[in-house]
Input
Amino acid sequence: MPATHKVCEMTRRALDPDGLNLFVANGEVGGQTVFHVHVHSIPRWADDAWIDPWSPAPGDPDAIAAVAARLREGAPHA
Output
């Protein structure tokens, strides 16, 4: 969990969300599609619409790239 804590702190610094959801899918029935252990850190804002992590939907590639760049800037190894 230390790595998860670091990712959450990095997400808070980079994106300043109102909150975070942590999500782990375990087993095919649990929604797991990548079969190794990993934790999703999902930034949340008071006015966002809940995105059901079990129903993936494509995102805007440019918006995703912009968020990834902000996260990389705040990463300890950047």
Summary: The mean pLDDT is 85.
